[in-house]
Each structure stands twice: as C-alpha cells, then as structure tokens.
Amino acid sequence: MKLVNKIALITGGGRGIGRSIAFAFAREGARIMLLARTKEQVVQTAVEIGEECQADRASWIACDVSNSAHVEPAFNQVSEIFGRRPDILVNNAGIAESAPLVKTTDELWQRHLAVNLSGTFYFMRAALPAMIERGWGRIINIASIAGKTGAPYIAAYSASKHGVLGLTRCAALEVASKGVTVNAICPGYVDTEMTTRALENIEAKTDQPASDALEAIKRMSPQNRLITPEEVASVALLLASEEGRGINGQAINVDGGSVLH
Q1: What pLDDT was estimated at residue 54?
Q2: What number of other Cβ atoms are within 10 A of residue 129's Cβ?
C-alpha cells in the first residue's frame, strides 16, 4: 500500500471530492483526519471508512477553515489522536456562489476569500513546519479550472482560486529542496452536491430546467460529461504517494480537456 504509516488531514472531508480522497487514501493505508464545519457528514464518512477498511483509520474535527483561531487546535488534536502532525494536507474545503460582478456584495466577496484562499493559507502555514522538519510532506490544494480562466458571474470564486494557484506555486518553490511537494488539482464541473446546488440556482434564477442546465454544463467539456470525485481522488493519490515526488508546483487539470493550460 502506498500510504502506510502516513497521516492525512483533509478539509471539507465529509462529502464530494474530499470524501473520495479520504477513501482513496485510507485504502492505501493512511490514517485520516476529516475536517468540516458541521460534523454529521464527517462522522458518517469516518464510520464508513472504518467499516470498509476494518480498522480504526479515520477520525474527525468540526472546524471552520476560515477562522485562523481554529487551525492550531485542529492540528493539536491530530497530534493527540495520531501521535504527530499530518504528513499529507489536502485543502479541499471551499464554497462557490455566483453573482454578476456589479451585484457581488462585500460579504460574498469576503466569504470566498476567507474560505477558499485564506483557509488554504492558514492550513498550509500550520502544516509545513513539521513536514520540513521530518523531510517529507505533501500538500494538495483543490483549486478549479476557474483558477486558470474566467467565466461570467463567478468573479469572487474565480479570483479566490487564482489566488490558490499563486499560493501553491510560491510555497512549492520554497520547500522544493526539503522533501515536501505542494501541488494543486483543478477540476472542471464535478458530479457533487456543489454542482447540484449550482444547477438549482440556475433553475431558480432563469426558469431554465436543471436538466437543461446540466446538459449545457456537460457540453462545456470535450468529453460531454461531468468529472467524478473518484477521478480527482486518483490524481490526489498520485501526488500524495512516493511515485509523485517529482511533481511540484503544478496545477493539474481534471476537466476532460476544457482548459488546455
């Protein structure tokens, strides 16, 4: 197994991409700490991982990644439960809301920066010292193809994800000689609750049926489909493993070819 004796901390780990990454890592021997603002989904995911792996391999913490005061207590709890700070950090927690730029409120703008960008920064800052000290670590930031290109009505989301890619590249160069890699994954539209909510929002605002909106979203990909969370998890597993040690500072698209850079 590729991740035996590794400890992975996954934010937004109770559903969608985070949940799939948690299962993929646990199947390869990692012990998993799941974080989310509400506990129901992370508790259920931890239980299901334990049942599938037939081992007490996952635990959870309720934590708001946008609040810097929550970060150090979360890492302390990882140490208390698993004996040390994490070897692998997956920054997956995020939000996605839409609005025309001129109707983007201060509150909507700040929410995206706080969760998507500042939350990623807070957790990277807390995780890196122990990784550097032990000479091994992996940070995987779940960004978006919206971090590489723009689209109407997602200015706050796209700006926050562009920021994640800049943060990823800077950190990767700082730790390149320390045995630590820092990378980002940039999914297109993924078959998750976040996409479902986006479709519901389109239907509510435009009277376009959600089914029609779904077909339009699928056509944005040359493969004419949504990406699955498991596909994103497979890339994350490569980046977390020893086989991925030569990949650093990259923003890897998982989008069926929608964005070619």
Answers
A1: 83
A2: 11
The span from the CA of 3 to the CA of 10, in Å, is: 14
Entry pTM: 0.95
d(CA 135, CA 127): 13
Residue 118: both structure tokens together: 């500042």
Q: Which amino acid is at 95?
A: I
Task: Give the list of residues 6+ apart from residue 101 with CB closer than 8 angstroms, or none.
Answer: 153, 155
Q: Is 153 a catalytic residue?
A: no
Sheet holding 251-254, edge to edge: 58-62, 31-36, 7-11, 88-91, 137-142, 180-187, 251-254
Q: Which residue numbers in the chain have pLDDT < 50?
A: none
Q: Which of 122, 153, 157, 189 is catalytic?
A: 157
Q: How many degrees, rounded to 5, is the angle at CA 248 between CA 247 and CA 250?
A: 90
Beta pairing class for 7-11 and 58-62: unpaired
pLDDT at site 203: 66
Q: In this predicted structure, what is the pLDDT of residue 245? A: 98
Quick one: angle between helices 16-27 and 229-240, nearest 10? 50
Asked if 15 and 41 touch (Cβ cutoff 8 Å), the reply is yes
